Amino acid sequence: MGKKRKQIEAEVVEPEEIPERPKRTLLGWKDKSLVPDEETDSKVFRNKEKVLITCSRRINYRYRHLMLNMVSILPHCKKDNKVESKATKGATMNELVELRSCSSCLFFECRKHKDLYLWMAKCPNGPSVKFLVNAVYTMEELKLTGNHLKGSRPILTFSNNFDKDAHWKLLKEMIIQIFGTPKEHRKSKPYHDHVFVFSIVDDHIWFRNYQISDKGPREDREKMTLIEVGPRFCLNPIKIFGGSFGGPTLYENPFFVSPNQIRALEKRKKAGKFAKKVKAKTRRKMHELSNPLEPDEFADMWKE
Amino acid sequence: MGIFDKEPVMFEEDGEEDLDEEASESGSEEDEDVKLTEPSKNSIYNRDGLLDKLGDICWPENAGWIHRLSIDVNQEQEVDVNDDLTREAAFVMQALEGTKEAFEKLKSMKINCFRPPDYYAEMVKTDSHMEKVKGKLLSEKRKIEEAEERRKARESKKLSKEIQAQKQKERAKQKKEEIESVKKWRKQRQQSGFAVGEKDADMNLPFEDGKTFERSNKKRPGVAPGDRSGGKAKRGVGNPNKQKKREFRNSKFGSGGRKGLKKQNTAETTDDIRSFNGGKVTGNKKRKSFCMTSKISLLSICTTMFDSMLELITQAASNSLFIFCFCNLIIAILLVVSKSSSELGQQGEIPLTVVINTCTNHKQGTYGKQVFDENKMLRNVDQVSYSHEAPVVDKEESGNIHHNKDEEEDDDDELRRRVEEFIEKVNKEWKAESLRSSRLV
């Protein structure tokens, strides 16, 4: 009430000189002069990405360690408990993500204790990708000797293959949003001392993480050396869905053969040995019948 | 857009059907690589849908690069997936280029990229883990170094002998050359003539003996094959006698070494009488020695013979006179025997006196030497008698006898003197006895 009077008085006395007090609204102080600023502020981009990292039950030790490595690399993530395998797809996952107020999810699904599938999804209505993960090397490998600050913002490098096709572009955008640490995140650290490498080789996405170490003076960038920190993995995209953990299939990898199929084929190969032998024999017989031999001149030479 | 809308639907349906066919086909086909190319035509690829979604999720474009921090690196070469080394190298190259670009951009924005050395914060890997990494790296380094050293040692061992030989040759050569040069110089000086003096001429240079190429007698100390101390044991500390004694006792009483034969006799050791006393009578004197007993036994035999003879005679005749006569008879016989051969009369006398001696002596005691002489004579006499019993006609034997005679002539002079003395003694005693006997009677 007092303020209203003052405001009126102020307006009456000096309408132009004194800056107006910000109007108090339910949403907060609203200052007329600042309104355009706020509008521009709203245009100022703030990366509020949060990633939920979970895994399925009966996950292998190696894949669990990979998941934990991802948790340590991405400071803007939240780790959640194991998810029941039956209820992974569809609604439950979306609910879980929303519950934890995250905007994206990395879900590690382990099948048959052997195969690891990685779901990368933007929630609530973004696209989701299912990958098959190969060639996993965790950070605990003693051969990966590098080390970097926990929570420092990485530099993301992509090979130019990513711009060649639509699905690669989509994947690139998703990767940037999920793997890139938001600026001014609470847990982020100031300096840039590691770099992520995403490159497409043989229709697989290869991931590497290197530490940037400088031995010489800072100005001399030629003396930069890269030491691998880890982890390492290779992603084979299977399908891209329009919705989060489901929805219409936007992309299907034509060259993808599920590991189950591969194993089945191997077994069948071994199983069909006898049948193949029989076939080969019959083929040989047919061949011999169709091409009779010329009579041998020397066949009776050594006969007694 | 309409057309595009239809296509995905059709594709989906076709895709499902074809997938079923593929599954069955792929099972029957033998070649796995071929089947992959077939479904590639039927897979879903909704480009528009993808691009739509991309637009949905994309950040506003006015958001600066600083939020993205993404760099696109030009990948020039096609990398072979299976070649690990080149693949990794390609990744590293990509990372390097990306970081360089990014750092340039960051620098332009005046953002510090590198971490200052005093900035300590939590790292992605724990310190304990980094310790393990460090340990592993160090161990690898050590292994490599050790392997290198071992290889070098092996090679050097092979070469060492050759090198040694070469070095020796070189040294010898050098020595030779030096000597030659000095000799030459001296010759030259001699030829040119010098007025220095005689001193220089007598320079006995140590290498001019001509003995340079012989080995010196200096031996390396203590490298005998049985020496287990490696030649470094102290040899000169103890008393050498004591050492020798110790070694001897070790070899004799100690254990070890070659089996069995150490304490057995060999041909040399059986005849080794060094340990015995050397003829002295030591120890128990009551026990008579072997040599004395032998001599004494001979004497005793002779004396007993004579005793028995004389006892018989005395038993036969109580009179001393008779005994005297009997002795003379014996002497006479002996003389005759000796004279018939025309030998030394002295010899004949001598046995007589000897016989007399025996007669006297056996009663009074034995004179060892005299008995010895008697025996000697007796033997001579026997010799002589044997020679005479052979046919006297035989002149050859007589010749021999003459030879024997000649040898014994020198000895006989002494004997003569002795004999004469004993005769006198005996006569005196006989007289004494006769007097006594006469007195008694």
Gyration radius of chain B (Cα, Å) is 65 Å
- Termini separation of chain A: 135 Å
The outline of chain B comes out as rod-shaped
Poorly predicted ranges of chain A: 34-41
Helix amount of chain B = 55-70%
Mean pLDDT of chain A: 84
Order of helices and strands of chain B: HHHHEHHHHHHHHHH
Multimeric status of the protein: heterodimer
The description of the largest β-sheet of chain B is: none
Strand element count of chain B:
1
Query: What structural class results from the helix and strand content of chain A?
Result: alpha+beta
Counted beta strands of chain A: 13
State the helical fraction of chain A. Answer: 25-40%
InterPro entries (chain A): Brix (IPR007109), BRX1 (IPR026532)
Subcellular location (chain A): Nucleus, Nucleolus
Organism (chain A): Castanea mollissima (Chinese chestnut)
GO molecular function (chain A): rRNA binding
Description:
Chain A has a domain at 46-139 and 158-184 and 235-261: Rossmann fold. Chain A is 29% helix and 28% strand. Chain A has helices at 2-13, 34-43, 61-73, 91-99, 166-179, 259-271, 273-290; strands spanning 23-24, 29-30, 51-55, 77-79, 104-111, 115-122, 128-137, 155-159, 194-201, 204-214, 224-228, 232-243, 246-252. Chain A starts with a helix and ends in a 14-residue tail after the last helix. The relative contact order of chain A is 0.11. In chain B, 67% of the residues lie in helices and 1% in strands. Chain B has 14 helices and 1 strand. In chain B, helix 11 packs antiparallel against helix 12 (345-364). The N and C termini of chain B lie far apart (194 Å). Mean pLDDT of chain B is 72; it is low at 1-37, 344-352, 363-372 and 384-404. The interface between A and B is large, with 76 and 71 residues. Chain A: Residues 294-304 have a biased composition (Acidic residues). Chain A: Residues 276-304 are annotated as: Disordered. Chain A: It is found in: Nucleus, Nucleolus.
